[in-house]
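Students often ask why inverse folding is considered easier than folding. One informal answer: many sequences map to the same fold, so there is more than one right answer. In these notes we will look at a single instance of the problem. The structure comes first.
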């Protein structure tokens, strides 16, 4: 039976980041994932500068053989209204292909990779964990995303609210589509639904286009997606039909009831339901929770035993909300929609609140953690 200090189930950014941090302390780590990497992953595929900083990634080195689309501005508005274009004059985030990005992080982690192997059984023993009757580990990390098998093992329940549901597609455009697409790579486009319960996006990364829409209200999602695609055509952003869109789901931070820490285990990233409450972004919360999980496993917060994991759960159970969001949650939905549509027509709100605060996390981390080495 193979033995490890930590077994991580899930090879996405949360799991590979946790492994990378743990390996720097010399522990023997294994990552188990049913997929063979590189693999495709449904995701908008953009990262903030904080992701590169936290992961100590040199942008020029990463971009040498991979897609790293500099983003220097955004077009933001509500569907049917004129958008506001904001320019920063320098890269504030980057477009990536998850197929490349996840594989890069996984190979760099230094963990032993057990790929193409699903988690089929999990048993708790006095000496730790036994997975698939063949892998022993002292500690377990669930990093398998929204449908993480480790989360299911610990009785993952739903949430106080429904998960965000989304449909999107990412594909390489042909020469005609590239010529007809008016979306610029350096300027992704974000369009909010009229009720502000979701938004659609259109990101270009060189010859690759990613289009999708997510909603906190799951009702009538296909109709909202259809309306968004019709809006993009009517606005002249794209003039061609898209390949079929695929669906996925995730919990926003603070809306899931999943137990994210306990005796000998932690959940990270989407397994713990940590997508950014304001934007739905998952990569930065995945990275930050992976780092925090590793720090707790190593005992770097000067707590012992159960206290370490209680502190992890408490930290991640307190999502940050801006004052405007707290006010908005106390108002009737029609009023929120009306006020939101008015605010999205003002440059200060789009830049200072929507972009700098909600999407770029310019002044705070995604899960309110402080990284310490």
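Output (designed amino acids):
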């Amino acid at each position: 039976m193979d033995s490890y200090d930590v077994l991580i189930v899930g090879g996405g950014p949360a799991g590979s980041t946790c492994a990378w941090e743990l390996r720097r302390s010399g522990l023997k780590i294994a990552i188990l994932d049913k997929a063979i990497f590189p693999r495709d992953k449904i995701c908008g595929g953009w990262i903030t500068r904080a992701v590169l900083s936290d992961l100590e990634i040199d942008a020029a080195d990463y971009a040498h053989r991979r897609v790293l689309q500099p983003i220097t501005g955004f077009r933001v508005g509500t569907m049917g209204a004129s958008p506001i274009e904001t320019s920063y004059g320098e890269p504030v985030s980057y477009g990536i292909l998850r197929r490349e990005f996840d594989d890069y992080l996984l190979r760099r982690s230094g963990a032993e990779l057990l790929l193409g192997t699903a988690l089929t059984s999990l048993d708790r023993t006095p000496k730790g964990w036994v997975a698939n009757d063949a892998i022993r580990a002292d500690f377990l990390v669930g990093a398998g995303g929204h449908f993480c098998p480790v989360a299911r093992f610990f009785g993952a329940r739903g949430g106080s609210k429904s998960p965000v549901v989304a449909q999107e597609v990412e594909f390489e455009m042909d020469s005609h589509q590239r010529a007809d697409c008016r979306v610029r790579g350096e300027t992704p486009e974000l369009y909010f639904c009229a009720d502000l319960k979701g938004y659609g996006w259109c990101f270009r990364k060189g010859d690759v286009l990613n289009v999708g829409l997510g909603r906190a209200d799951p009702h009538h999602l296909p109709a909202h997606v259809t309306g968004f695609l019709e809006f993009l055509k009517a606005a002249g952003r794209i003039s061609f039909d898209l390949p079929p869109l695929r669906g996925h789901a995730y919990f926003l931070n603070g809306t899931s009831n999943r137990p994210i820490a306990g005796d000998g285990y932690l959940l990270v990233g989407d397994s713990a339901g940590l997508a950014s409450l304001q934007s739905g972004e998952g990569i930065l919360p995945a990275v930050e929770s992976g780092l925090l999980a590793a720090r707790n496993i190593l005992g770097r917060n000067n707590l012992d035993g159960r206290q370490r994991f209680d502190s992890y759960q408490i930290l991640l159970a307190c999502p940050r909300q801006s004052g405007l969001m707290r006010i908005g949650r106390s108002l009737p939905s029609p009023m929120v929609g009306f006020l939101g549509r008015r605010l999205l027509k003002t440059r200060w709100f789009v830049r200072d609140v929507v972009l700098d605060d909600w999407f770029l996390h310019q002044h705070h981390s995604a899960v309110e953690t402080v990284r310490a080495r």
